[in-house]
Design brief:
Helices cover 50% and strands 11% of the residues. It has 2 domains: 122 residues, Rossmann fold; 94 residues, ProC-like, C-terminal domain (N-(1-d-carboxylethyl)-l-norvaline Dehydrogenase, domain 2, Orthogonal Bundle).
Length: 236
C-alpha cells in the first residue's frame, strides 16, 4: 500500500483484520520491489507519477473513483474505490459498495477479491461512467455535509443545537434509502405551501444571507422533485 493518508491507513487496518497480507502504508516514492501487487492511495493528480516509479511485472491499482486505468499504463492495472466516507477516525467498509475495474481478468479478480475481503460489495463501473459515478458519490456524501452545515448555521441562529437536527437527518436518509427521492419528500415545498417557503426565505435573508443563493437553488430543485413525485402518484 502506497499513500499514508486517511484511506491508506483505513484500508491497511481493514485488510490486516481480514487476514490479507499487506505492507504499509508506505510513503510516495516506493518502487514496489518485492511485492506482487501495489495499491496506490494517493491524490488523483499523483497517481500517474506514483505508478511511473513502480518496477514492471506486478499488478498496480489505485483507489480513485473518478480516474480510469490508463493512468497506470503500462502496468497490468486495477482499481478499487470504496463507496464510503473516511474520516481521521477511520471507516467501517462492511456493507458498502466499491467501484472496481481491471485491465485483465486477473486484475479485475484482484480488485473484486480485495473489496470482498473487507466487506465491500464490488460493482464494475465502465471507464466512461467513472466521473458520473464519482459525482453521485460526492452529491450523496460531500454535498450532504455542506447542506447540513448550512442547516446547522440556521439552527444556531435560532438557538437550536446541532444534535437535535441529527434524528431528523437520520430519518430522512433512511426514508430516502427505503422509498427513493420522490416518495420520501416531505415539507412545505412538497405541500405547495408557498407562504411558508417565502417566510423561510425571508428568515434566511435576514439571519444568514450568505446561504440565500443555496436556499433558492434547493427550493428550485425540490420543486422539480415534488412535480416528479406528483406525476408518479397520479400515474398510479
Amino acid at each position: 500500500m502506497i499513500g499514508a493518508g486517511r484511506l491508506g491507513f483505513a484500508l491497511v487496518e481493514q485488510f490486516r483484520a481480514s487476514g490479507v497480507e499487506v505492507t504499509g502504508p508506505l510513503g510516495r516514492g516506493a518502487d514496489g520491489d518485492g511485492f506482487g501487487a501495489v495499491l496506490l492511495c494517493v491524490p488523483d493528480g499523483e497517481i500517474g507519477r506514483a505508478a511511473a516509479l513502480l518496477k514492471p511485472g506486478r499488478l498496480v491499482g489505485h483507489c480513485s473513483g473518478a480516474t480510469g486505468l490508463d493512468v497506470l499504463d503500462p502496468h497490468e492495472a486495477f482499481s478499487m474505490h470504496p463507496l464510503m466516507t473516511v474520516t481521521a477516525e477511520g471507516a467501517d467498509f462492511r456493507g458498502a459498495g466499491a467501484a472496481v475495474a481491471g485491465s485483465t481478468p486477473q486484475a479485475l479478480w484482484l480488485a473484486q477479491t480485495l473489496a470482498e475481503r473487507i466487506g465491500l460489495e464490488p460493482v464494475a463501473i465502465s471507464e466512461g461512467d467513472r466521473a458520473t459515478y464519482h459525482a453521485a458519490a460526492s452529491v450523496a456524501s460531500n454535498f450532504l455535509v455542506t447542506l447540513e452545515a448550512a442547516a446547522e448555521r440556521l439552527a444556531t441562529a435560532a438557538g437550536l443545537e446541532r444534535r437535535l437536527l441529527a434524528p431528523l437527518v437520520r430519518a430522512t436518509v433512511e426514508n430516502w434509502a427505503r422509498l427513493g427521492g420522490e416518495r420520501a419528500l416531505t415539507g412545505p415545498v412538497a405541500r405547495g405551501d408557498a407562504s411558508t417557503v417565502a417566510a423561510q426565505r425571508q428568515a434566511v435573508a435576514e439571519r444568514a444571507p450568505e446561504l440565500l443563493e443555496l436556499f433558492d437553488a434547493m427550493v428550485t430543485a425540490t420543486e422539480s422533485l415534488a412535480r416528479q413525485s406528483h406525476r408518479e402518484l397520479t400515474a398510479r
